[in-house]
Amino acid sequence: MDRVPGYCSPVTAEENGAETRDGPSVEDGLVDAFGDLAALPVEVGERRPTCLRCRRPQKVCLCPFLPPQPLEVSTCLYVVQHPAEESRVLRTVPLLAACLPQGKCNVIVGRRFNEEKHPELAAVCRDSRTLILYPGPKSQNLEELVQYQEVGSVKHNVIIIDGTWSQAKNMFLKNSLFHLPKQVQLNRTLSSQYVIRTQPSNICLSTLECAAVALSILEQNDDIQEVLLRPLKALCSFQLQHGAQIHHSKEHLLKNGMYDKPMPKNKRKIKRMEKLVTDHNICPR
């Protein structure tokens, strides 16, 4: 019999070779004690009422910073979200979805995707109009791609991987479906406004920021970027006013001698951190 740490497995008097006695045994007492504990009422903590639009607690609702009406866009976003992102309190994807019409921001949660279990996503990946936003040597600059297109002439689908940088890299490499669409990256110089979460480098952006820039390029409307970033700025401002600290990027900490965590022993990780300091053009994946 397995033993629970801190407790001995119950052994009867006969098994010990001792005489049995009348009356309640130690085992009976333990059973009664656990029975009494089980009978105690369980206190269920009340969840704070949540705003149905921005998905934030009602007391810190960000709807005043959202557009009065969803933005009219021809582009359709598919946010492929790592399961760990669902449990994060300060997520940006719900704010993104609240700014766009229904069906224009589709969130699909998972790590592995295939044609059998995700036929809709597979069809999107095979569509010639679909782009996947992921930086790398094979990526084309998004602005160059749409430079000679008329507004609305091509209704693009854009796949964005939502997760930490290591999660996004793992999901991209291990899902062959994500290698079917044309791979694109953003070339605009923009510092992240998402200052309450650590980014690897100064030019790395949150999911909402990536979507904001991509949509403004594809729709050829810079106002879209400003409107989408407004709730993110409000979220960060509120958190900073209530005790949150500004999170500098790992690149900033390394360059300024402020990185206080132990340096990795793995050579590949050391090389990656050195690249953060010397390479100014690529978000490490």
UniProtKB/TrEMBL annotation:
Give the catalysed reaction(s), semicolon-separated: a uridine in tRNA + S-adenosyl-L-methionine = a 3-[(3S)-3-amino-3-carboxypropyl]uridine in tRNA + S-methyl-5'-thioadenosine + H(+)
Swiss-Prot/TrEMBL keywords: S-adenosyl-L-methionine, Transferase, tRNA processing
Pfam families xref list: DTW (PF03942)
SMART domains associated with the record: DTW (SM01144)
Top-rank taxon? Eukaryota
Q: Which residues form a coiled coil?
A: none
Residue ranges, annotated region (Disordered):
1-24
Provide the DTW domain boundaries: 47-244
- Enzyme Commission identifier(s): 2.5.1.25
Q: Name one GO molecular function term.
A: tRNA-uridine aminocarboxypropyltransferase activity
Broad enzyme group: transferase
Which GO terms of type biological process are on file?
A: tRNA processing
InterPro entries given for it?
A: DTW, DTWD2/TAPT
Q: Look up keyword S-adenosyl-L-methionine and say if it applies.
A: yes
- What family, per the record? Belongs to the TDD superfamily. DTWD2 family.
The protein here is known as tRNA-uridine aminocarboxypropyltransferase
